[in-house]
Design goal:
With about 950 residues, this protein is α/β, with parallel strands linked by helices. A hairpin with a 2-residue loop joins strand 7 and strand 8. About 35% of the residues lie in helices and about 15% in strands. The chain is globular. The strands form 6 sheets. It has a 9-stranded mixed sheet. It catalyses: N(6)-[(R)-lipoyl]-L-lysyl-[protein] + 2-oxoglutarate + H(+) = N(6)-[(R)-S(8)-succinyldihydrolipoyl]-L-lysyl-[protein] + CO2. E1 component of the 2-oxoglutarate dehydrogenase (OGDH) complex which catalyzes the decarboxylation of 2-oxoglutarate, the first step in the conversion of 2-oxoglutarate to succinyl-CoA and CO(2).
Length: about 950
């Protein structure tokens, strides 16, 4: 093919352009569609030709602009060999060079960060990346002074020589900041990053005072670590040494956020550098930290926690006004704090009416290995753009020590090029930055925050640094990284390098030493703190938890509602707007509920639950209900969200009756979550931790799905109060019941909650009637107590007529922790008392009726923890002649409540009474998978409840 042909060779078969980096072509095509004159002539002619390529559906190609260009280039990539673009023969060589310049710019934008100067230790040579060399595109030394028009392709000068362009590209994309953003599909976002980075060549231009302040923050970061290292030798603190620039980053983030209107920042981070953040960012008094090292700190919690798990809050002054800082408490599960922080932020946003998150900022600090390795990171990122969990974008900062935990071989640390690659799933931009260039770190932080505030999306600053000491201060890292730690031993330290740099710039030869001496003196006095921490500032949005402290679970609350209010609410939640067509099955549900509301039928579980929510929002208590399929309900019992059968759009095709119960009501929010348990439950816990006046409910699709959120349950819900003093009123609904459905979806693992129950840390209940769930949910809010509530909710009982309740049980009464026997028995005739909880009661009652037994009483324990000793003892004393007490349960003997409950029952038994067990034998699986075997076991355990005691018998 000759060069005078209208079509000429432009690309190699293995060109960078035809790999996974086709975004360059898409970007050029987007520019062409917006303004054909904005692209070079040869590209314009080529795209003009593409307009004649038919779309796959026969429509005009311009209606689907990406499809023709992607398909055309993909086809050329498959063909291999030489590739072609269109240009006129007269200026083919000039056109080829113009195109090559655009390819060169695109290459640097896409992969320039791989050649950036990011490693402070400089352990590895820069990789060979041919696409970053002009020769790859056919340029020679003779082209170095050729002038190209770059006004439409690179931000900066309108014309540049090839030499100038190469210098600009390398300064921008291959310096101490390496930017990744070209995978983003939003054109405006990409152009924003190009303008921001290229217009300044990714180089800061700070004043002398700014530079001195950065040095001051580095001095504080290093000074605290060295003081602790010499004063508390060998004690764990997870030192920040090697990553001191992180403190400068946090300082810049807070100060700049304040200028942009942010009033609250919630921070989540694990161990590394946490003590440094507490003292040098949040302003914790050093003497208080020293007291923890010396074990002289005041201890007023039942358990407490180690110092590098502690949270803290303070108010600091910024140029834009006061900013409240909260560092979330965090266990050793590292990234598990991520969704908790996001939930806390969302609660603060809702309280402020801050829909876009412009006043509240989440900041998550990660370690490189944890960020790449822990699944909760991905789950939390997946929440970022969803309606119920949106927080306006998170600023992520990675303290990247390049070896993670103790990995001795980089090949074992992860499967991706960068530890941050997981964020590409939500197209979050990443700024990799050399931790030895604190000015670059501060600039990257500025840009990250600016992007977040502009686009309300996540962004990452990856500070590539090192870890001077081991994983902890008792570790010997040279055992596994000998060569790396030889390099670290020779490193002067970021503070020293920066101080020397400022000295060469004429900012004072002794400046660095003076700062070190000043900080050391403050540490010796134990008085140094962040200047300016505000000690008397009180935000009007602060939550007052004092009404909920020091309360007991027995403190009463009036959970009944007047009959007139019952009927009014029932009418509102069963009425739909005119011209709204509900599904026939849903219409029947609404009609039945309307009859229940009028007292024409007993109330079922779904109506009882709805009425609890309706009465709460009508009384000013917001309700937030989330989980997989909660709108409809996994067992199709809830129907809190109605869908118009004639409209597809959800924004106009849905109706939520509970959002329309009163002219002035509290919000009712129902969220069908993503398919996640760990992140979603963590989010809801975080939300509840910052809003005691909202009923926050998370429902597992099946009770055993809580397995996927066990870390949240163990480390936060069960122990957060005794470790950290964090009061929380979250409610968990876990469908539980043995219905012959196999080992999965039978058990919510009640035994796990029983094992976790202590110190009055939670409530575990298993209600069996519609009125019980009504009173239980209302009790959670109307009484002055905030404790996690775990509800073992039923499945078959949702539609069991025996589990329905008359209106009278809603308009008077309260939640019964123990339900007395419903049968009229002569108490003195009773020889056996069967104690149970949950669905099995109805099997026992049916069997007793069939056997016509008048000497057996059945008690239902509806609250398993805290165990209601007073109520239970009162019921047991009604039967003084009963000799046998039997605990009956559906679950296997090593599961369920048996091992927990037997001691509580025994404590309340009368002299001479014997306690026995009726239930399935111990099992490694929660339930059998064969239907016939399930039926046999169920019959056997019910029969055993009425049979002679055998096996293990506990005598009073």
């Amino acid at each position: 093919m000759s060069e005078t042909s209208p079509v000429y060779t432009a690309y190699r078969g293995n060109s960078y352009l035809f790999g996974g980096n086709a975004p360059y072509v898409e970007e050029m095509y987007e520019n062409y569609l917006a303004n054909p004159g904005s692209v070079p002539d040869n590209w314009r002619e080529y795209f003009d030709a593409l307009q004649n390529v038919p779309a796959s559906d026969g429509s005009n190609a311009k209606d689907v602009p990406h499809l023709p260009v992607i398909n055309a280039f993909a086809q050329r990539a498959k063909q291999g060999g030489t590739q072609v673009v269109v240009a006129s023969g007269a200026d083919s060589e000039l056109g080829r060079k113009r195109t090559a310049v655009q390819q060169l710019i695109a290459a640097y934008r896409n992969v320039g960060q791989r050649w950036a100067d990011l490693d402070p230790l400089k352990r590895a040579e820069r990789p060979n990346i041919p696409e970053l060399e002009p020769s790859f595109y056919g340029f020679t030394d003779a082209d170095q002074e050729t002038v190209f028009n770059t006004s439409n392709t690179f931000f900066g000068k309108e014309t540049m020589t090839l030499r100038e362009l190469m210098n600009a590209l390398r300064e921008t994309y291959c310096g101490t900041i390496g930017a990744e953003y070209m995978y983003m599909t939003d054109q405006a976002s990409k152009r924003w990053w190009q303008q921001k980075l290229e217009s300044i060549r990714a180089k800061p231009n700070f004043s002398a005072d700014k530079k001195k302040h950065i040095l001051d923050r580095l001095t504080a970061a290093e000074g605290l670590e060295r003081f602790l290292h010499t004063k508390y030798v060998g004690q764990k603190r997870f030192s920040l040494e090697g990553g001191e620039s992180f403190i400068a980053s946090m300082d810049e983030l807070i100060q700049q956020a304040g200028t942009k209107g942010v009033q609250e920042i919630v921070i989540g981070m694990a161990h590394r550098g946490r003590l440094n953040v507490l003292v040098n960012t949040l302003g914790k008094m050093p003497r208080d930290l020293f007291a923890e090292f010396e074990h002289t700190a005041k201890e007023d919690l039942p358990a407490g926690d180690v110092k590098y798990h502690q949270g803290f809050s303070s108010d600091v002054s910024t140029p834009g006004g006061p900013v409240h800082l909260s560092l979330a408490f965090n266990p050793s599960h590292l990234e598990i704090v991520n969704p908790v922080v996001e939930g806390s932020v969302r609660a603060r946003m809702d309280r402020r009416g801050d829909a876009k998150g412009q006043q509240v900022l989440p900041v998550l600090v990660h370690g490189d290995a944890a960020f790449a390795g822990q699944g909760v990171v991905q789950e939390t990122l997946a929440l970022a753009e969803t309606r119920g969990y949106f927080t306006g974008g998170t600023v992520h900062i990675v303290i990247n020590n390049q070896i993670g935990f103790t990995t001795s071989d980089p090949r074992d640390s992860r499967s991706t090029l960068y530890c941050t690659d997981v964020v590409k799933m939500i197209e979050a931009p990443v700024l990799h930055v050399n931790g030895d260039d604190p000015e670059a770190v501060v600039l990257a932080t500025q840009l990250a925050l600016e992007y977040r505030m502009e686009f309300s999306k996540d962004v990452v600053v990856d500070i590539v640094c090192f870890r001077k000491l081991g994983h902890n201060e008792q570790d010997t890292p040279s055992l596994t990284q000998p060569l790396m730690y030889k390099k670290i031993a020779q490193h002067a330290g970021t503070r020293k390098l920066y101080a020397d740099k400022l000295a060469t710039q004429g900012l004072g030869d002794s400046l660095g030493d003076d700062m070190v001496r000043g900080y050391r003196a403050a540490m010796d006095a134990g008085t140094h703190t962040v200047d300016p921490v505000l000690t008397n500032f009180k935000s009007k949005y602060a939550v007052d938890w004092s009404p909920f402290l020091g309360k007991k679970w027995t403190d009463a609350g009036d959970t009944a509602i007047p009959l007139t209010e019952w009927k009014r609410l029932a009418e509102r939640i069963t009425t739909v707007p005119e011209n709204f067509t509900v599904h026939p099955l849903v219409r029947k549900v609404l009609e039945d509920r309307a009859a229940m509301g009028r007292g024409e039928a007993n109330v079922d579980w779904g109506m009882g639950e709805h009425m609890a929510y309706a009465s709460l929002v009508a009384s000013g208590y917001p309700v937030r209900l989330s989980g997989e399929d909660v709108g409809r309900g996994t067992f199709v019992h809830r129907h809190s969200v109605l869908h118009d059968q004639n409209r597809e759009r959800w924004d106009v095709g849905t109706y939520v009756p509970l959002q329309n119960v009163a002219e002035s009501q509290a919000p009712f929010v129902v969220i069908d979550s993503i398919l996640s348990e760990e992140a979603v439950l963590g989010f809801e816990y975080g939300y509840a931790s910052n809003d005691p006046n909202t009923l926050v409910v998370w429902e597992a699709q099946f009770g055993d799905f809580a397995n996927g959120a066990q870390v949240v349950i163990d480390q936060f819900i069960a122990s957060g109060e005794v470790k950290w003093g964090r009061v929380n009123g979250i409610t968990l609904m876990l469908p539980h019941g043995y219905e012959g459905q196999g080992p999965e979806h039978s058990s919510a693992r009640l035994e796990r909650f029983m094992q976790l129950a202590a110190d009055a840390n939670m409530q575990v209940c298993q209600p069996t009637t519609a009125s019980q769930i009504f009173h239980l949910l209302r009790r959670q809010m109307v009484r002055p107590l905030r404790k996690p509530l775990v509800i073992m909710t039923p499945k078959s009982l949702l539609r069991n007529k025996d589990a329905t309740s008359p209106i009278s049980e809603f308009t008077k009464g309260s939640f019964q922790t123990v339900i007395p026997d419903a049968m009229e028995l002569r108490a003195e005739k009773v020889k056996r008392v069967i104690v149970c909880s949950g669905k099995v009661y109805y099997d026992l009652a049916k069997q007793r009726a069939e056997r016509e037994l008048a000497d057996v009483a059945i008690l239902r324990v509806e609250q398993l923890y805290p165990f209601p000793h007073k109520a239970f003892a009162a019921e047991l004393k009604k039967y003084p002649n009963a000799t046998d007490i039997v605990w009956c349960q559906d679950e296997p003997q090593n599961q369920g409540a048996w091992f927990f409950i037997q001691h509580n029952i025994h404590e309340n038994m009368l002299e001479g009474q014997k306690l026995g067990y009726a239930g399935r034998a111990a099992s490694a699986s929660p339930a059998v998978g064969y239907s016939h075997l399930h039926q046999e076991q169920q019959k056997a355990l019910v029969d055993a409840a009425f049979a002679k005691l055998k096996g293990f018998v506990l005598t009073k």
